[in-house]
Every structure is written in structure tokens, then in C-alpha cells.
């Protein structure tokens, strides 16, 4: 066990956990931020995507020990009222089916648009290919990303 | 208007229980902890709720809560079902909040997901619930204003008496309405008067989803809750022999490691009880990560079990089944399937198929294979349970709560009345969550450690845990006469462990001489419902085969099917044909028109397919090209006939999902066995369709229909496999007989 000072959604959080604990489980079990989801644990599905220092990362595969000194944004920290342009676009296109993968999809999309405000279809494919949706909402996700890019 | 006799049971109309304010409302269910969404906040919580019936509560300020009875797993019933109630209630949708009902067999019937039947089966009950409540409010207004009830109208949450210029919102009449006797008959609206049904309404949980609110079973938390995982055998055919937890129990955060038995040895299983792995090892601790680590430190010994007999109660029908011993391999399975196919039983025979094939000028014969598939719900299997003496509280995602409750009661020896199951949103179901052994495991674990626990499966536990889509095979034969008429049709299909055949579906009824045979192979690999069971394989085989016949006789594949359907309509062959040739032809005609079928764009390869299942019809045209060896699906146009549409945009979303999921499964989905062990256990090797592989465009068209709603969550899934295969054939010249397709294209 060790103590870590984390910056999550603009707030300092102190946790006392095994240094190897993936950020995902620190968020979910220790900080009650359960919006970030577990899907595979091996960086293959994107359900656990958070934004770390501006980049979309798979929180299941980064130990908490590597998170100190970084800024992490989770789905809960995107906006106060659920009105981030990407969230709004997601609602406008009624993207979710079961919804389980969507927090990860949204975080990947936000990181994409932050780095590339006008992505091409190929840019979108490349940025989103790490996020699996078994319900098959990809076509709407792509539309929502374009809507958000234009807003 | 239609007059309809109220058939809801008496218990759904409890007399007014002036529920004590918003506080109580919020304490219903475990979402209490999360703040009300903006809609609730903006509307303001009522001081008092009046329970009109099991489905509806009305606050004194006019806010209406409609309970959504069925579990929500992405089919959007949590929006659609309340829309039906709200329509007949004549409510203002902007003043409706929807709440997920817990399992409550007194108030609701058929609270499960499966077979795309929620809306179809709920249609009458939901309409009546709304209409009855509306009538009670009208009666209350009549009494209050002392005017005849039949002079009172309703509109968007108001009762109105035009002559006396009286108008009140429902909230003002709710407390009286809740005390009035039930009307014997209620008026149901005419379709032309619908204001909510048939209009696009946003997913009621959308905001919670996009803001990451706790909605799913895995998100469930309770004070003092511990985390649990299980270890199940690594292969089918093995069972627990012994385990050594001495290292694991000393690890940080670990409370206990012990054996879990999900069913007693003499338990008589019912339909959705699995035999996968009855004995597992549970690890319980303070956090998921600590439990995951300790899990690796448990040393388990497994042993092969011997062949045994199991008895099942299939809804009153008793059946004995032999579960064979052994560690199975794919080659061995295929060999057994070959033998079983030769000993198939006839399930339908029309005319004289033997003669037809003997006299045929040409016979086409093709064999199709489909592998085992894992459901791969993105939310792994999990459940919360708290067994506290003889009280049980559970929460989580499951599809068949009613059936699971019985199994749980029997396992714990605790009466059903003492069991409460809250249904959380499902992070996908697709059939997998009908087999809720994890709920029983969770409860047994909680009972043992005497604390609330949340059991979660790792992805690997989930993917290697059994309940797969069966491995299937089908051989089709077509007999053509010298003028290329289809004079005989023969299908021989089977699976391990279940057959895929629907013998009475198309093309049965359209061919003079028809023979359908089926077979099964026993196995210890467990199988179960998987999105559009059986159809998910047989449609691919049949619709690919029809494409090949059409080509052989030089006919357009759509025209060829339409000709057969015309025969089935005008001159049906045989008995019990299980489809409506007019609706079937309807989707083909619509897709033909909307896809501009005859004008194939340059560089595009095109394929078509259609299928009937879950009481609905779907046809798809797939347009693709191959670029640098990669399949690019440019466009899919689909036509769907699922009767009346409740929520068109949500319906479209579901149909798009069927297409994407179907293409993904057809291209990449497979699971094989070596020595009883699945050859893949996570998404590094189990390939799922990703964004770049999804169709660029999907257009969905619905047949305008006056029929009551039929299934929607599944019907679009089976046909797309063959539309893809038929388009790939146009692109590559290669027919695809084996799923998945991708490995054969490189
Ligand atoms: S859970 Fe992290 S990528 Fe799947
Ligand atoms: S919406 Fe269900 S997995 Fe994406």
C-alpha cells in the first residue's frame, strides 16, 4: 500500500492503495467514480477510456503509480450539467443502446476533437477503433462526432 | 375508440397509498444515491404521490411516474413501454418520469427480455394500464365537478369539462382517482389520435448514460459491500477437485476463499438453469483489484467428470439428458456432427422429395457451418447480493428475473416473498443474461460471508464460462428440372447441442416437394439463447443458398424469392407455414425500391437477403467493395416490417445495431475448443467489429403497418449475414460456406 495524490476532474484526491492498482479500479472502487467502465482489462475494448494530460488512455492498463502528477478527466468531469458539446451531440443523435460502452466512446471522441477539431472519416476511424460497441452504434457515434465538431 | 375490458389483476390497483412525498419515491430502488436528472429537478418533485396502479403514480403537482416493467438492455423498452402507457393516459410526455420497476410478480406480468417480445406482449396490458388510469381521473373529475363523466375529455395531462369551462391537471384529481372503483371497461384510443406513439422520443436514460451515472449492475454499491470473483474450470468436461488458498487468504484485502455450489446435487433444473460449472471457488475481499490478484494465487486442481444424467423440468415437461464426459476438440465435434447428420429425423415433409431429387435434371448441394459464439456483452456478468438472515436483496442485470427468483429461492431455502430483485440497466444481454447462475453464486457468497457483496466476472471468466451460441451445420439441396424450375428442396440441419432449424418457415410452403430433417449432438459444452436463436445461423445458410439457386437458374435473387412467395401465398404447400408471404414479400419489395436494386453503382458489389423471425420481417441490401484486401461496407439499406412502430428513431437505432452486430459476427465471430477449453478468452483474440469496419451508411425503412407491434430487437440480425455473404460473392467470386468469413478472404 502507498499513498497517491491524484488530480481527477480538477480535484485532488488522495488514495491509499497497492501501487499496481490500475487507475480504473481506483476510480471505480475507491473514488466512487463508476462512469468509467471495465470491459476487458487488457486495453482492447476502450470501455475504461479516460483523458490523461489531454490524451485518451485505457485506465485499466495504467497503474495508479503512473498517474501522480498527471491531470485525469473522467466522464463525470466532462461538464457540470451534462452539456459538453460531445454529450449534447450524443443525446441529439440518441446514440446509446445498452449504453455500457458509451462513456469510453465519449472520452475517446472528446480527446479526438480536442486534438483535431475537424476530423476526417479516417481520423475518426483511427481514434475510435479502440472502442468496441457490441450493440453496434458506430454509425451514430460517427454522426455525433461530426455534429460535435461543427458546434 | 375501442372498448376494452380491463384485465389487469386486482393487486395492480391498490387503493391510494398516499406515498409520503418525494422522499419515498427516491428511496425506491438503489438509484437513491444519485441526484435526480435535470428533468426531475426542473419539474420539481411533488409533495405527495398517488398510486393509481402498478404502472402509474401521479403527484399532486401533475408530475407522472410511469414504471417500466421490463429490464432494459438497449432495446429502449424503458422509453417505449412508458410511451404506450402515457399515450392512453393522455399524458404530457414532458411531465413524465420513468422508473425501472423491480421484479414484482403481483403487479406485472412477463417481466423479462427475450425473443423480442416485450412490446408485442406488453401492448395490451400497457394500453389498458394507461386507459384505466385515465378513466379513473375522468371519474374523479366528474365527481368533483358534479358533471357526467362522458362529458369530460382529457388532453396532455388535463381533464377538461368544456361546457362548464372547467379544467384541472391530473395531479389535482389523483388523490380522489386513487380511491375510486375500477372501471369495468375502458376506451382505447384510435391510432389516428396517437400523439406519443409513433413519434420520436429520446431515450429516457440518455443523460444518465452520457454523464456516467451509476446505472449498471457493476456500478452498484452499498455500505459495507465486499467484492467477489469466482474461479471456474478452465475447460468444459472438468470439475473442481480441490484447491489450496493458503497463499491467497494472506494477501492484502482478502477476507475469504471458499467453494461455492450454485445448485444442490439433487436440484431439478429448469430451462434457464445452466450446468456449466456448478462448483467454483470464490474469492472475497475489499476491492476488485485485490480480489483479482488473490485469484491468481489460488491453486486449483481440476478433474474430468464422468458421463452423467441430468433431469430437467421444461415448464412441466420432464426430460432426462445425458451430459457426456470428455475434453472436446473441434475436429471430434465435426466428426460427430457428420455422423448425426446421417441419422437425422424428419421434421417436415411435403410432396415426394425423393422422387423430385431422383428425377431432377440438376441438383445443387451445399453445406454451411457456423462456430460457437460468445455473447460478449460489454458489461461482464455480475450481480449484487445481500443475504441477511432470511431476507435477500439482489440487484443487477438479468433477463429472466422471475425464473431466476425461483431457482434462487430453492437454492437458499428462502421463500420468494423474502427475495427482492432490483433490475439495473443491462450492459447488453443478447440472451446471455437469461442464464443467471452468477446471481445465485452472488447470493451464496453473501450468505457465507454474511455481508453484502458484488460478484463480478473478469472478461476471461465471462468469455470462457459457457452458454455459447451452438455450433451448427446445415446441408441444403435443391432439385431443378430441365427448365430450371425448383422442384425439390431439402434441408438437413443440426447442432451441438441444439438444432438451428425452423422447418415451417420459408421456403417451406413454396416448394412442391420439401424435406426438412434435424439432428443434435450431445456435448458438455453449454449453449444457450443468442440474439435471434437458431435464426442467427439458419438464415445465413438458407439465404446464401437461395442466392446460389437464383444464380444457377439465371434469375434475379429478389425476383426469385418473390416468385416463391407468390406461390406460398396463392397456392401454399403443406400445413403450418409459419410466416406471412405478403409481409415477407413486402420487405423485399421495399428494399428493392429503396436500394435502387437494379442500378448498382460502379465499383460496388451488392447482395440481398431477407428473413422472418420474432414475428417480424427484415430484408437487407449490402453494398461493399474490397480495397487493399479490406472489405469496406459502403452502405446497407434495410426494410423492416415490425407492425406499428412505437418510437421510430429508437427503432431505427436498434435495426442499425442489428446490421453492425450481424456483419461483425459474420466476419469475425468464432470460438473453438481444444481439449474442452475455449481457444480465446478476451478481445485480443476474439475479434469484434470496430468503427472502421462498420458500414459507412445504414438506411432503415419501415413498412407502414396497421398490425400491432411485433419483434424488433432481433429480426434485423439474421438476414444481414447472408446479404454480406452474397455481396462478398459478387466481389470475390467465392461463395462463403463457413462462418466467420474474414479468415477466408485474406
Ligand atoms: S477495460 Fe480497458 S480497454 Fe477494456
Ligand atoms: S451501446 Fe451497448 S455496447 Fe455500445
TrEMBL record, chain A:
The keyword rRNA processing does not apply. Keywords: 2Fe-2S, Iron, Iron-sulfur, Metal-binding, Oxidoreductase. Pfam families: Fer2 (PF00111), Fer2_2 (PF01799). Its EC number is 1.3.99.16. Gene3D superfamilies: 3.10.20.30, [2Fe-2S]-binding domain. Residues 2-78 form the 2Fe-2S ferredoxin-type domain. GO terms for molecular function: 2 iron, 2 sulfur cluster binding; isoquinoline 1-oxidoreductase activity; metal ion binding. The keyword Oxidoreductase applies. InterPro entries: 2Fe-2S-bd, 2Fe-2S-bd_dom_sf, 2Fe-2S_ferredoxin-like_sf, 2Fe-2S_ferredoxin-type, 2Fe2S_fd_BS, Beta-grasp_dom_sf, Diverse_Oxidoreductases. This is Isoquinoline 1-oxidoreductase subunit alpha. It comes from Cecembia lonarensis (strain CCUG 58316 / KCTC 22772 / LW9). The gene is iorA_3.
Automatic annotation (TrEMBL), chain B:
GO terms for molecular function: isoquinoline 1-oxidoreductase activity. Keywords: Membrane, Oxidoreductase, Transmembrane, Transmembrane helix. It comes from the Bacteria. Residues 211-306 form the Aldehyde oxidase/xanthine dehydrogenase a/b hammerhead domain. Its EC number is 1.3.99.16. The keyword Transmembrane applies. It is an enzyme of class 1 (oxidoreductase). SUPFAM superfamilies: Molybdenum cofactor-binding domain (SSF56003). It holds the Pfam family MoCoBD_2. Gene3D superfamilies: Aldehyde oxidase/xanthine dehydrogenase, a/b hammerhead, Aldehyde oxidase/xanthine dehydrogenase, molybdopterin binding domain. InterPro entries: Ald_Oxase/Xan_DH_a/b, AldOxase/xan_DH_MoCoBD1, AldOxase/xan_DH_MoCoBD2, AldOxase/xan_DH_Mopterin-bd_sf, N-heterocyclic_Hydroxylase, OxRdtase_Mopterin-bd_su_IorB, TAT_signal. The chain crosses the membrane at residues 12-32. PANTHER family: ALDEHYDE DEHYDROGENASE, BLR6219 PROTEIN. This is Isoquinoline 1-oxidoreductase subunit beta. The lineage of its organism: Bacteria, Pseudomonadati, Bacteroidota, Cytophagia, Cytophagales.
Amino acid at each position: 500500500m502507498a499513498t497517491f495524490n491524484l488530480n481527477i476532474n480538477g480535484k485532488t484526491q488522495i488514495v491509499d492503495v497497492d501501487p499496481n492498482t490500475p487507475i480504473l479500479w481506483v476510480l471505480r472502487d475507491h473514488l466512487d467514480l463508476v462512469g468509467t467502465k471495465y470491459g476487458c482489462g487488457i486495453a482492447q475494448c476502450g470501455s475504461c477510456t479516460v483523458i490523461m494530460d489531454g490524451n485518451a488512455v485505457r485506465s485499466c492498463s495504467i497503474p495508479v503509480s503512473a498517474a501522480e502528477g498527471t491531470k485525469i478527466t473522467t466522464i463525470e468531469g466532462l461538464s457540470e450539467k451534462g452539456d459538453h458539446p460531445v454529450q449534447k451531440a450524443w443525446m441529439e443523435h440518441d446514440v446509446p443502446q445498452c449504453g455500457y460502452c458509451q462513456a469510453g466512446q465519449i472520452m475517446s471522441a472528446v480527446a479526438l476533437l480536442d486534438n483535431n477539431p475537424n476530423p476526417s472519416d479516417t481520423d475518426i476511424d483511427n481514434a475510435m477503433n479502440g472502442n468496441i460497441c457490441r450493440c453496434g452504434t458506430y454509425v451514430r457515434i460517427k454522426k455525433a462526432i461530426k455534429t460535435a465538431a461543427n458546434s | 375508440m375501442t372498448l376494452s375490458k380491463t384485465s389487469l389483476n386486482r393487486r395492480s390497483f391498490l387503493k391510494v397509498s398516499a406515498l409520503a412525498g418525494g422522499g419515498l419515491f427516491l428511496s425506491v430502488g438503489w438509484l437513491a444515491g444519485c441526484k435526480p436528472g435535470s428533468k426531475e429537478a426542473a419539474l420539481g418533485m411533488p409533495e405527495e404521490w398517488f398510486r393509481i396502479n402498478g404502472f402509474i403514480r401521479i403527484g399532486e403537482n401533475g408530475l407522472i411516474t410511469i414504471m417500466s416493467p421490463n429490464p432494459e438492455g438497449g432495446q429502449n423498452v424503458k422509453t417505449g413501454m412508458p410511451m404506450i402507457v402515457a399515450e392512453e393516459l393522455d399524458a404530457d410526455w414532458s411531465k413524465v418520469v420513468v422508473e425501472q420497476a423491480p421484479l414484482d410478480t403481483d403487479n406485472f406480468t412477463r417481466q423479462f427480455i427475450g425473443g423480442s417480445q416485450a412490446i408485442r406482449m406488453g401492448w395490451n396490458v400497457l394500453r389498458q394500464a394507461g386507459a384505466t388510469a385515465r378513466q379513473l381521473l375522468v371519474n374523479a373529475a366528474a365527481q368533483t365537478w358534479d358533471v357526467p363523466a362522458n362529458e369530460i375529455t382529457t388532453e396532455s395531462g388535463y381533464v377538461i369539462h368544456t361546457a362548464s369551462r372547467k379544467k384541472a391537471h391530473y395531479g389535482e384529481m389523483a388523490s380522489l382517482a386513487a380511491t375510486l372503483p375500477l372501471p369495468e371497461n375502458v376506451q382505447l384510443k384510435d391510432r389516428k389520435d396517437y400523439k406519443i406513439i409513433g413519434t420520436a422520443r429520446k431515450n429516457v436514460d440518455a443523460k444518465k448514460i452520457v454523464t456516467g451515472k451509476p446505472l449498471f449492475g457493476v456500478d452498484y454499491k452499498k455500505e459495507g459491500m465486499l467484492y467477489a470473483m469466482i474461479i471456474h474450470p478452465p475447460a468444459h468436461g472438468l470439475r473442481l477437485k480441490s484447491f489450496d488458498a493458503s497463499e491467497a487468504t494472506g494477501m492484502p484485502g482478502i477476507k475469504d476463499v471458499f467453494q461455492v455450489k450454485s445448485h444442490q446435487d439433487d436440484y431439478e433444473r429448469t430451462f434457464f438453469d445452466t450446468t456449466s460449472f456448478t462448483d467454483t471457488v470464490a474469492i472475497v475481499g475489499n476491492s476488485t483489484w485485490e480480489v483479482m490478484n488473490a485469484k491468481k494465487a489460488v491453486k486449483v486442481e481440476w478433474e474430468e467428470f464422468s458421463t452423467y444424467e441430468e433431469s430437467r423440468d421444461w415448464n412441466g415437461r420432464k426430460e432426462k439428458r445425458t451430459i457426456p464426459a470428455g475434453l472436446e476438440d473441434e475436429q471430434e465435434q465435426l466428426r460427430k456432427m457428420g455422423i448425426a447428420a446421417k441419422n437425422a429425423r424428419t421434421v417436415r415433409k411435403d410432396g415426394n422429395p425423393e422422387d423430385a431429387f431422383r428425377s431432377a435434371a440438376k441438383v445443387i448441394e451445399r453445406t454451411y457451418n457456423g462456430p460457437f459464439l460468445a455473447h460478449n456483452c460489454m458489461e461482464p456478468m455480475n450481480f449484487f447480493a445481500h443475504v441477511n438472515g432470511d431476507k435477500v436483496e439482489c440487484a443487477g442485470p438479468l433477463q429472466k428475473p422471475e425464473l431466476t427468483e425461483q431457482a434462487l429461492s430453492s437454492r437458499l431455502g428462502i421463500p420468494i416473498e423474502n427475495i427482492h430483485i432490483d433490475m439495473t440497466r443491462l450492459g447488453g444481454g443478447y440472451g446471455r443474461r437469461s442464464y443467471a447462475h452468477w446471481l445465485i453464486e452472488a447470493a451464496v457468497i453473501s450468505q457465507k460471508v454474511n455481508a453484502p457483496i458484488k460478484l463480478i466476472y473478469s472478461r476471461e471468466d465471462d468469455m470462457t464460462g459457457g452458454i455459447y451460441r451452438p455450433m451448427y451445420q446445415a446441408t441444403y439441396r435443391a432439385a431443378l428440372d430441365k427448365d430450371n424450375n425448383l422442384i425439390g428442396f431439402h434441408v438437413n440441419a443440426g447442432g451441438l447441442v441444439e438444432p438451428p432449424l425452423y422447418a415451417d418457415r420459408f421456403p417451406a410452403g413454396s416448394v412442391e416437394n420439401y424435406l426438412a430433417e434435424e439432428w443434435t449432438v450431445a456435448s458438455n459444452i453449454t449453449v444457450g439463447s443468442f440474439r435471434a436463436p437458431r435464426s442467427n445461423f439458419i438464415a445465413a445458410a438458407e439465404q446464401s443458398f437461395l442466392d446460389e439457386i437464383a444464380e444457377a437458374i439465371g434469375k434475379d435473387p429478389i425476383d426469385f424469392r418473390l416468385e416463391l412467395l407468390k406461390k406460398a401465398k396463392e397456392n401454399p404447400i403443406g400445413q403450418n407455414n409459419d410466416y406471412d408471404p405478403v409481409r415477407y414479400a413486402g420487405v423485399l419489395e421495399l428494399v428493392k425500391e429503396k436500394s435502387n436494386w437494379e442500378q448498382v453503382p460502379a465499383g460496388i458489389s451488392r447482395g440481398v437477403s431477407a428473413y422472418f423471425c420474432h414475428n417480424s420481417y427484415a430484408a437487407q441490401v449490402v453494398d461493399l467493395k474490397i480495397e487493399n484486401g479490406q472489405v469496406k461496407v459502403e452502405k446497407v439499406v434495410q426494410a423492416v416490417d415490425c407492425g406499428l412502430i412505437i418510437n421510430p428513431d429508437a427503432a431505427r437505432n436498434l435495426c442499425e445495431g442489428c446490421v453492425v452486430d450481424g456483419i461483425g459476427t459474420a466476419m469475425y465471430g468464432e470460438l473453438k475448443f481444444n481439449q474442452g477449453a475455449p481457444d480465446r478468452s478476451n478481445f485480443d483474440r476474439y475479434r469484434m467489429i470496430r468503427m472502421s469496419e462498420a458500414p459507412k451508411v445504414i438506411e432503415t425503412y419501415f413498412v407502414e403497418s396497421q398490425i400491432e407491434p411485433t419483434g424488433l430487437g432481433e429480426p434485423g440480425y439474421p438476414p444481414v449475414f447472408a446479404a454480406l455473404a452474397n455481396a462478398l460473392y459478387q466481389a470475390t467470386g467465392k461463395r462463403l460456406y463457413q462462418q466467420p468469413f474474414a479468415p477466408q478472404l485474406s
